[in-house]
Structures are given as structure tokens and as C-alpha cells.
Q: What sequence folds into this?
């Protein structure tokens, strides 16, 4: 059986994956902090989770353990649950307020 | 050589998708850029011998969560929002915070690059049959309670979603 | 020259090229089959004009589609409008690459092949949703939204019924699944004292919904939504949507065949004395019978050219039947023949369903998906797991 992964044997050092993970995380964090649209903010959260998953799996590959895979598996489960509830909340907010700008939904602000 | 080229391709896809997600005006375009970014990361998973997570990433993220996002974007009318200003009033502060985080992580990496001592590989990777079997063994033996808790979390999410969507219960 | 034939990339390359080149042709004849069978069910003749008995009708249709003007709505999102059919086609064709056509003919087999197929079918949803959204038309948007909701809902039932089959096979690799059925000596559909028939039926129903076919063709319900998500598409792009819809039918049908009906195995794969009647007899009877039918129909053709053409087709079928008698060829071709026969049966079943059942209403569709199929599939997993473990322990 020709293994797909054997063709792409990873000789790339661990640190490259970590740097990439940091870059993705920072881009996600920047988007989370500066965007106004709630949906885009939500997407940036997914981006950050994904960056963290990448470093989990890179470490897991380096250490030859599957525990990292399991952590990122749980992160994905949490992301799915969060997306379901979060998007339902977004729909309700839009129904009640007709807007999705994050600085206009500020009733709880003092 | 080949793996380096593949790494650069997937990394470029992931970073370009991420940047476009943050900067695009139209929410649908943001979602598509995010899909590209997730696809790039999925390719990196494949390079790291995580075939199962590669498939889960595509099924769950691209096929599930992003379709849900597109769904919501189409249900809410965002045409007015696309014409307004896209960035928060205090975007300078946000950018500074994100940059600070990045600088901090980079500093840790630069200072700690030589000192990181990873323990030697504990278990030889069972390569024959791929990692699906070994993943299942660990997941259902060592992580059974977290697994059940995750299913409980999903149940809560389902109930929450139904509660939000229904007008009257 | 001889080292060329032993290269590991040779068979994948040839099979991949065959998939790309032959699948449009196969789609053309599946469409023809569909029109003919539906016509027969409705006591009509169906297409009869182009070619003998209308054999070339869909080829003519394809040429017409290629020459049609390609319009893009003025307010449409141009890039996405052009990209969406490509996404749908690409994912459908990629799903075909992990299907085993026989023990040897396959593009590739990975250890997550079944997941690759589900992944591709779930990415294919994006092409439909984005196509509906980018057309900037209400009908398209509603069709796309309906389609998204329907496909996500039924994908859950589909995945849960796949779990039963994977549990029996202990692997996610498609060849491994076929091997497991060979070792057990029974197709998974009839395994576990017939309990596996429940997930088989669930998979069948959910796959009809996944491929957007009647009675679950809500996304393109023509009496409600004009044509659903591809209302604004015309010419070649519309053709690409149609093509990928049928190719995904092939892919899903092949998964059904591989996981539950033995893939490329002949019936009763462990009974050795049945090899002669099944591997030699069945192709000869089927090809020879259709050849005979062609010769019979030549007498009814209106013009001589058609009669000659049909006679040629009949002669070709007889040649195919004779070629199957060569043992060296038969050994390689018989598994492909069995796979194709099973797939055609499944496709016929899909067409039959379309000709028989009226379309579901949208809320009925969702009720069936969430309140019937998913709980039944969960129950089937539990039941099959318990029974399978009891059998293994005995």
C-alpha cells in the first residue's frame, strides 16, 4: 500500500512549524482585536485555535507520541461546539438588533 | 528537498489565507480565505504524519464549521456592513497588543531555542497501518473520560443551539 | 521497455487518466440510461432521434452545451461564480481516486481512504453553496441554502452508517475493507445475522439525499425554485455542475458497493467452483445478451445507417464477450466487471427511486434526516457492535 505520508516524509525542522504557528496565531489575534464584524471576529478565533493545533501536532510528531493529536482532536470538538452555539447567538443578535458591528452591541457597557 | 518545497507551499497558503481573512471586506471572502488557510494547515498535518487529523480537519472544519459560517453569513444581510468601516475604533491598540504577543513569543523562541530539551521518543511510532489505530488505542484507553466529557459538551452545544433557534420551547 | 511496465506509478497514472477521460463518457450514458428508464416507467419511448434508439442523444446535448453562450449575471460575484463549478467537479473527481476498481486498478489507497471520500463530499457542498450565493439571485440563494442544510444533515447519517461498516472491517482503507469481506466470506450488507442491512439501508437513503436526487432533490426543486442553485448557470458551467453531480453519484455508489456489497468481489467469493460460472459465464451472458438485443433492434431502425451502426455495436459487445473468455484477460477484468455491474445496479436503483417517489417537503426532509435516520443509525451502531463482539467472543 503506497502510504501517502511516506511520499511527504517530514524532514522540515520542528522550529519552522512553531514559527509558522506563531505567525498564524498573531494574525488571528490581530484580526480578533481589530475587526468590527462579529462573524469575522469569530473566524479569527478559529484561526488562532488552528495555529495552536498546528504546534500540538508538530510537537507530537517530534516526540513520536499521539497525545498531541488527541489534544488537537479535542480542540476541534470544542471549536465545533463553539461554532454551533456562537453562530446561533450571532443569529439571535442580528434578529434583535439588525447589526453585527461589535462596538454597537454594547448594552452591558457602563 | 521535496518536503521543504511542500512546506513552503502549504505555509504560504496558510499565511496568505490568514492575512486575507483579517483584511477582506466582504464576509464571504473572509470565509473563503479562511478555508484556504485551513486547507494549508491540513496539508501540513499530512506532512506531519497526522492523516487522521488531516481528514478530520477537512471534514469538520471545512465541511462542517465553515459551511455553517457561510450559512449564517447568507442568512444575515451584511451588505450594509461591508460598506462601513471595517476596523475597530481602537485598532491601533489592538494591533499593538497582537504585535506585542508576537514579539513576546518570538523573544521566547530566540532565547530558548538552544535550551529546549525534548525527551527522547518514548514509544516507537507504529507506522504500519498508519496512525489511526494508534490514535484510537490512546483515545479510548488513556483518554476515555475526556472523550466522554467531549461528547457531553457536544450535547450541551446541541441543546444550546436548539434553545437559541426556537422561539418557544 | 519492460521496466516501464513494472513502475509503481504506471497503474495509478493510467487509472487516473481513465477516470478523467472516461467519466464524462460514463456520465453521458448514465444520463441516457436515466432518460430511457424514466421514459419506460412513464410508458414513453424517450429520446429516439439522435443515433439508433437515441444512443447518441446525450453526446449531442454535450456538444450543444459546449457551443452555448456562457452568461454571467451582471450583479454576480464573478470570481466565485466561475470558481464554484470547478470546486464541485474537482472534489467529485478526487473522491473517485481512492475507489478500488479491482485488486490492482486503483489510483491510490491510503489508510484513511474512506475519510478522504467523506471529506471530498463535504467540501463539495461549498461549491454548491457558493454557486448559489454568487449568482445574486433569490432562487439560487434559496437553493444553495437548502442544499447546504440538507447535505450537512444527511452527512451525519451517512457517516454514522459508515461507522458500522468500518467496525466490521477494522480499517479505513478501501482495499482493506474489500479484503476483510473476502476473509469473512460474506458481504457486509448480509453480515451479523442480517443486522448490517439496517446501516446499508440508511446509507442508501442518505446517499440519495447526498447526491441531490429525487425524492430528495430539494436544492433544485424545479417546480418551486426554477432550478435551485444553478438557476443562473448556463452552457458549459451548467454542464460541469451536471457532470460533477453524476460523478459524485458514481463515487457514493462505489462507496456503497465497496463497503456493503463486496466491492470488486464476485458473489460468494470463497466458493471456488463458482468461479467459472460467475467470472466467465456472467460477462458472456450479459454482453452477449445485449449484443443479441442490438442485432434484434437493427430490424426496426428507420434508416440504413442506424441499422449498420447498431449492428456494429452488437458486434463490439460480442467481441467483448469473447475477450472475457481469455483466462489471462479474465483474471484482470472480471473484478472490474463485477464492480461495474454492482455500480450500474445501484445507479438503476437511484433512477428507479426517482421514477417512483414524489418529492419530499422541506420539513419532512429534515424530520426524516434528524428524527428517523440519525437515531436509527446510532441504534444500528450499538446493535452491531454488541452482536459483533458477542460473535467474536464465541
A:
Amino acid at each position: 500500500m503506497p502510504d501517502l505520508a511516506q511520499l511527504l516524509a517530514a524532514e522540515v525542522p520542528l522550529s519552522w512549524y512553531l514559527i509558522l504557528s506563531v505567525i498564524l496565531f498573531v494574525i488571528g489575534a490581530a484580526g480578533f482585536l481589530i475587526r468590527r464584524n462579529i462573524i469575522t471576529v469569530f473566524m479569527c478565533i478559529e484561526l488562532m485555535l488552528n495555529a495552536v493545533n498546528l504546534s500540538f501536532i508538530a510537537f507530537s510528531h517530534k516526540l513520536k507520541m499521539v497525545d498531541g493529536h488527541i489534544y488537537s482532536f479535542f480542540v476541534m470538538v470544542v471549536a465545533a461546539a463553539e461554532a454551533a452555539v456562537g453562530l446561533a447567538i450571532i443569529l439571535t443578535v442580528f434578529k434583535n438588533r439588525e447589526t453585527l458591528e461589535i462596538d454597537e452591541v454594547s448594552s452591558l457597557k457602563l | 528537498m521535496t518536503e521543504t518545497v511542500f512546506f513552503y507551499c502549504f505555509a504560504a497558503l496558510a499565511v496568505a489565507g490568514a492575512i486575507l481573512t483579517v483584511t477582506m471586506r466582504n464576509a464571504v471572502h473572509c470565509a473563503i480565505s479562511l478555508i484556504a488557510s485551513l486547507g494549508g494547515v491540513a496539508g501540513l498535518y499530512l506532512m506531519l504524519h497526522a492523516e487522521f487529523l488531516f481528514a478530520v480537519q477537512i471534514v469538520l472544519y471545512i465541511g462542517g464549521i465553515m459551511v455553517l459560517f457561510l450559512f449564517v453569513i447568507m442568512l444575515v444581510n451584511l451588505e450594509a456592513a461591508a460598506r462601513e468601516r471595517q476596523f475597530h475604533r481602537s485598532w491601533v491598540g489592538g494591533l499593538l497588543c497582537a504585535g506585542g504577543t508576537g514579539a513576546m513569543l518570538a523573544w521566547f523562541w530566540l532565547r530558548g531555542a538552544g535550551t529546549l530539551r525534548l525527551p527522547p521518543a518514548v514509544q516507537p511510532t507504529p507506522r504500519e497501518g498508519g496512525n489511526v489505530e494508534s490514535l484510537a488505542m490512546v483515545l479510548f484507553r488513556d483518554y476515555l473520560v475526556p472523550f466522554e466529557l467531549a461528547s457531553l459538551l457536544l450535547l450541551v452545544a446541541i441543546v444550546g443551539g436548539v434553545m437559541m433557534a426556537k422561539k418557544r420551547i | 521497455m519492460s521496466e516501464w511496465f513494472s513502475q509503481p506509478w504506471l497503474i495509478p497514472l493510467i487509472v487516473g487518466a481513465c477516470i478523467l477521460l472516461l467519466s464524462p463518457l460514463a456520465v453521458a450514458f448514465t444520463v441516457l440510461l436515466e432518460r430511457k428508464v424514466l421514459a419506460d416507467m412513464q410508458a414513453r419511448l424517450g429520446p429516439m432521434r439522435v443515433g439508433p434508439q437515441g444512443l447518441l442523444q446525450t453526446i449531442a446535448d454535450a456538444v450543444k452545451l459546449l457551443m452555448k453562450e456562457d452568461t454571467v449575471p451582471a450583479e454576480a460575484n464573478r470570481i466565485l461564480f466561475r470558481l464554484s463549478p470547478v470546486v464541485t467537479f474537482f472534489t467529485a473527481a478526487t473522491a473517485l481516486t481512492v475507489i478500488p476498481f479491482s485488486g490492482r486498478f486503483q489510483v491510490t489507497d491510503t489508510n484513511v481512504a474512506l475519510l478522504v471520500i467523506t471529506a471530498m463530499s463535504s467540501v463539495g457542498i461549498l461549491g454548491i453553496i457558493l454557486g448559489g450565493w454568487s449568482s445574486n439571485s433569490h432562487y439560487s440563494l434559496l437553493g444553495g441554502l437548502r442544499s447546504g442544510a440538507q447535505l450537512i444533515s444527511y452527512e451525519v447519517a451517512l457517516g454514522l452508517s459508515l461507522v458500522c461498516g468500518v467496525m466490521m472491517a477494522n480499517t479505513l482503507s478501501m482495499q482493506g475493507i474489500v479484503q476483510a469481506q473476502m476473509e469473512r466470506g460474506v458481504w457486509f450488507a448480509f453480515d451479523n445475522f442480517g443486522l448490517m442491512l439496517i446501516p446499508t439501508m440508511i446509507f442508501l437513503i442518505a446517499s440519495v439525499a447526498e447526491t441531490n436526487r429525487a425524492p430528495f432533490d430539494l436544492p433544485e426543486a424545479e417546480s418551486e425554485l426554477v432550478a435551485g442553485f444553478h438557476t443562473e448557470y448556463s452552457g458549459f458551467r451548467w454542464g460541469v455542475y451536471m457532470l460533477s453531480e453524476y460523478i459524485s453519484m458514481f463515487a457514493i455508489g462505489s462507496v456503497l458497493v465497496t463497503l456493503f456489497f463486496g466491492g470488486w468481489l464476485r458473489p460468494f467469493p470463497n466458493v471456488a467452483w463458482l468461479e467459472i460460472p460467475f467470472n466467465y459465464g456472467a460477462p458472456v451472458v450479459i454482453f452477449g445478451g445485449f449484443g443479441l438485443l442490438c442485432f434484434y433492434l437493427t430490424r426496426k431502425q428507420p434508416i440504413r445507417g442506424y441499422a449498420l451502426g447498431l449492428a456494429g455495436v452488437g458486434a463490439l459487445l460480442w467481441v467483448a464477450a469473447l475477450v472475457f473468455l481469455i483466462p489471462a484477460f479474465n483474471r484482470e477484468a472480471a473484478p472490474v466487471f463485477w464492480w461495474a455491474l454492482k455500480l450500474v445496479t445501484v445507479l438503476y436503483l437511484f433512477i428507479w427511486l426517482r421514477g417512483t417517489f414524489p418529492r419530499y417537503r422541506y420539513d419532512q426532509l429534515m424530520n426524516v434526516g434528524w428524527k428517523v435516520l440519525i437515531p436509527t443509525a446510532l441504534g444500528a451502531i450499538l446493535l452491531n457492535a454488541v452482536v459483533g463482539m458477542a460473535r467474536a467472543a464465541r
